[in-house]
Here is the input.
Amino acid sequence: MGKRKRVAEDVGVGLNKVLEDTTHSVGTFKKRAKNRNLGPFTIQIIAGTYERVLHGISATISNKQDGTASTKPNVEFADTFLFNAHASAIRCLALSPPANSDKVTLASGSSDQTINIYHISARTSLQQPGPGNPLPSLRGRKIVENPKNKELGSLQHHAASINALKFPTRSKLLSASDDSTIGVARTRDWTILSSIKVPVPKAHGRPSGDTAPLGGTPAGVNDFAIHPSLKLMVSVSRGERCMRLWNLVTGKKAGVLNFDKNLLQAVGEGRWGRGEGLKVEWDKQGEEFVVSFEKAVVVFGLDSKPKGVIKTSPVSKIHQIHFVDLEVDDNAYTNILAVSTEDGRVIFFSTGPDQTPDSPYQIPVCPAIGQIGGGNERFGNRIKDFEYLTVQGEQDFPRAPLVVTGSSDGAIGVWSLHSLSSLGEFRPPGHAVDASNGINGKHGDKTTSGAIPEVGRLLSKYETGNRITCLRAFVLAETIHEEDDAPPITNDGVETNGDAEITSDNSSESA
Here is the structure.
């Protein structure tokens, strides 16, 4: 007994010493990371607006050099381009995947039935904003003009408003429209390869919020998401209480998954609600996907069965959803979903529920593990779109991730997330939503209990003067190559080298 007691005491002392050493090393790392200057970097922000303007802004972020104790980085904004892009409001944007290139392809979709194509420089300009480098100004705003930011042409193969644009690879562009089609274009010559026809729903009465014309039926693809394997696609449409699976190899329908009554009640879509999915997105591993409704999000597994439901507290309308990669020390959460809301917040949820429901009519609740925009740094108006960015730092001194938000009042916010290991420490009590009556079967309230901690701070805010509808952002490379860019497309749609033509030919369609 004495030997066992001594062994247990030695183990306890050893564990305490390991915990003390770990705490000391983490504190030292945080202190060194705060005091180390990692140098400035620039992000390119692109905002689509109701005023038909495509606005490009660069944000150069650097540590303060004024010798003060403040560790808040300094953000310098500058206008990079301002395109009068469309004849109507811009509804969606898409950026091509990054590659070892000096440019990225930008696509913008509007309610004027056109898709505009642009080349945007992927590297910083030689002319950078700063006190020692004055720039031409317009109404007091700094301007950094890059000649490589230019328009290439437009695609006109849709007959209604463009709702969603995606670049699954650099060689393909997919677009969804209110004409109930999903177009596939090849970026090499901008030829329309095929057009996937989505069935138009039958009229079963006019749901609340219906904007279809008199005698018409609400139709059109709201959104779609492509599996990382590039062989499967999920789409949600107007007027349909279901989601559709598509085989991208054949371009044909693979199945229809209806939203049952229990699921619709769990997300707050009653008898007179629309009950249609508004947004859909796959995670990067391709193991689960989410479907967003007006005030809730449902997480589905590969078996297409609901794994959990996400609700904001207090309940607010959801505008955008994105899967993000958060570095948690104990790997407690493998998938994190970020949700932007009507009340000006971005909330981070774990897609793994805390509790297994006791009844098949209950859907587990996914816990909220953090937020930005609440409390003292409330952003104000609704956040229409946002982008999560990871900035590459040194090996022992990683940079904090950034979140760029765009509000409908024209404000762009740049947020810095704190040490993300704190997200793993927040464990709100798990409970399940009773799908039969729409309330929690265990605690009796409708949302996750407990206060959601703030995990970031607002670095700076920029007023664009236009109402933002969609937003994209990426990190610019530090250097610029003086190489000749690709020849632009002339007025007749033909490049100067005679290789390609942007056409609206839609002859090759697949049912």
